[in-house]
Amino acid sequence: MRTRREVIGVLGSGKEEHRAWVEPLARWIAERGFHLLTGAGGGVMRAAAEAFVAVEGRQGLSLGIVPGAVVDGAWSPKPGYPNEAVEVPILTHLPLSGEQGTEPMSRNHLNVLTAHALVALPGGAGTVSEAVLALRYHKPLILFGPPEAFHAFPAALERTPSLERVCAFLLSALRQGPAVSG
């Protein structure tokens, strides 16, 4: 009999890695047997996936939602995607990101809807748009990092510099179950 594994999404900058914050989080996710979901790119996404896959004996997989485009009938990923630590790339035809992250042609919808719970680290317009989508779709999301890094994020979201608080938030969100069964 197969057991269902929860998916935890880690969101953040596509440029800055924020390794001091993301590595212990990704290790915790791996050690608990959850799947990790990222946007499959660089920065926080790469750092999270690398730390996650480095955990020996883990049960979960590194999933990555890959932005792409179909041009003249041929699909290609956005340059730099997926990063090498993504074990299961989920290929999309969705090219939009950044300030267009809430638009229907953005993979951010899949990032948010696929995860059972989400953690956002500091990031730019794309990460902010994922936070907005999490609120829209009633997905549990917590902001993790230095509180001053989240001034552009919706005020309704909890901010914390504490890994312990993030872990407690995730466990509580997962106990409550998904907003929509999958």
Structure description:
The protein is an alpha/beta fold. The chain has a single domain, classed as Rossmann fold (3-Layer(aba) Sandwich). It has 5 helices and 9 strands; from the N terminus they run E-H-E-H-E-E-E-E-H-E-H-E-E-H. The strands form 2 sheets. It has a 7-stranded parallel beta sheet with strand order 6-3-2-1-7-8-9, sandwiched between helices. The chain has a two-stranded antiparallel sheet with strand order 4-5. Helix 1 (19-31) packs parallel to helix 2. The two termini are 17 Å apart. The model has no long low-confidence stretch (mean pLDDT 94).
Task: Offer a concise description of the structure.
It comes from Archangium minus. With 182 residues, this protein is α/β, with parallel strands linked by helices. It has one domain: Rossmann fold.
Which features characterize this protein?
alpha/beta, globular, two-stranded antiparallel sheet, Molybdenum cofactor carrier protein, Rossmann fold, LDcluster4, 182 residues, seven-stranded parallel sheet, 20% strand
Number of domains: 1
- The dominant shape is globular
Class per helix and strand makeup: alpha/beta
Label the CATH architecture.
Answer: 3-Layer(aba) Sandwich
Number of helical elements: 5
Distance between the termini: 17 Å
Helical content class: 25-40%
Mean pLDDT over the residues:
94
H/E element string? EHEHEEEEHEHEEH
What is the rounded Rg? Answer: 15 Å
Residue windows where pLDDT falls under 50 for at least 5 positions: none
Strand content: 15-25%
Any idea of the CATH class?
Answer: Alpha Beta
Under CATH, the topology can be stated as Rossmann fold
**Number of beta strands:** 9
